[in-house]
Design goal:
The protein is of the alpha/beta class. The protein folds into 2 domains: 233 residues, 3-Layer(aba) Sandwich (Rossmann fold); 63 residues, Histone, subunit A, CATH 1.10.20. The protein has 15 helices and 6 strands. The chain has a 6-stranded parallel β-sheet, sandwiched between helices. β2, α2 and β3 form a beta-alpha-beta unit. α5 crosses α6 and α10 crosses α14. The longest helix is centred in the last third of the chain and has 23 residues. The protein starts with 7 loop residues before the first strand and ends in a 9-residue tail after the last helix.
Length: 324
């Protein structure tokens, strides 16, 4: 019987888009002497800053951030790539006596990391992937999702039909192995997690309050130069995954002459709201998350103090307060 390694304390800050995760994670990092590890599937890309709400150097306020700007927009970057880099970053942070703080809204990234899901090195078949992509283009996004539902209804129930990248990968894995991806994930969970967890989630009881924040943030992004960022991005190669990022695909269409700028902006807001709803649906399934409702606190400082108190209790940490 092998020696059981001591679990690494890991603080997780999650929630839907525009819920304030970045600010909370940074302030907790200041008070707990921590460093932030991103769990955002689009902030990994360089040159995609404004539209992904990537924290600026000023917003990071001296707190080291990991897993930002690790891939070029034209580069293929998988969940397995993310997990490898994230696990290494967390071990490095903890090894230096700092608290790793995982934050982001990509539920699959968070769940796969905290549960230590092991993905077997299943070979890819480029020709098969190309065939699947063409089938999706010819028959529509829902077609491939229906194919996945037939062979892996468990995973299909967790994926939106427009999540073509992961749907294609799941179909590829099933075709090559005969085993549903959800079953491979179930088997991988038999490996114990290396982390001692405290998971915090931000949410709004009134959905309209979150939607107002989303709309305002989209307007701020446009004022900050999102359209110019998208124009620059078009000059180089961009992977199918990066091209699907909300805020980018809508402006790509506008630049290609499909509709007005107002139409594109309204669509960005609509898609962002829908994405927030999907994020909450995913995250609410995890009973380990301690939810912090914005409406229960008169201001941000009490919410921060409550978040810190939960982390102190679960991870036995010393809270020094968020020093400005």
């Amino acid at each position: 019987m092998g020696i059981q390694r001591e679990q690494i304390p890991l603080l997780v800050v999650c929630g839907p888009t525009a819920s304030g995760k970045t600010r909370l994670a940074i302030d907790l990092a200041k008070g707990f002497s921590g460093e932030v590890v991103s769990a955002d599937s689009m902030q990994i890309y360089r040159a995609m800053d404004i539209g992904t709400a990537k924290p600026t150097p000023a917003e990071r306020d001296g707190v080291p951030h990991h897993l930002l700007d690790v891939a070029d927009p034209g580069q293929s970057f998988s969940l397995v790539d993310y997990l490898s880099l994230a696990h290494k970053a967390i071990e490095d942070i903890a090894g230096r006596g700092k608290l790793p703080i995982l934050t982001g809204g990509t539920g699959l990234y968070i769940q796969s990391l905290v549960d230590n899901i092991q993905f077997d090195e299943i070979a890819t078949d480029p020709e098969l992937r190309l065939q699947l992509m063409r089938m999706g283009e010819v028959n529509g996004e829902a077609y491939l999702w229906e194919q996945l539902r037939e062979c892996d209804p468990v995973l299909a129930g967790k994926l939106h039909p427009n999540n073509q990248g992961r749907i294609i990968r799941a179909l590829e894995v099933f075709t090559l192995t005969g085993i549903p991806m959800s079953e491979l994930q179930r088997r991988s969970r038999l490996t114990p997690s290396p982390y001692k967890l405290c998971m915090l989630g931000l949410y709004f009881a009134r959905r309209e309050a979150l939607y107002d924040r989303i709309d305002r943030r989209v307007d701020v992004m446009l004022e900050a130069g999102l359209l110019e960022e998208v124009r620059e991005l078009r000059k180089g190669p961009i992977s199918p995954t990066a091209a699907q990022a909300i805020g980018y695909k809508e402006l790509f269409a506008y630049l290609d002459g499909q509709g007005s700028l107002d139409d594109a902006v309204n669509l960005i807001k609509t898609q962002s709201r829908r994405y927030a709803k999907r994020q909450m649906t995913w995250l609410r399934r995890d009973a380990r998350i301690h939810w912090l409702e914005w409406g229960r606190f008169e201001a941000y400082p009490p919410l921060l103090q409550q978040a810190a108190a939960i982390a102190v209790q679960l991870l036995q940490l010393d809270w020094k307060g968020a020093q400005s």
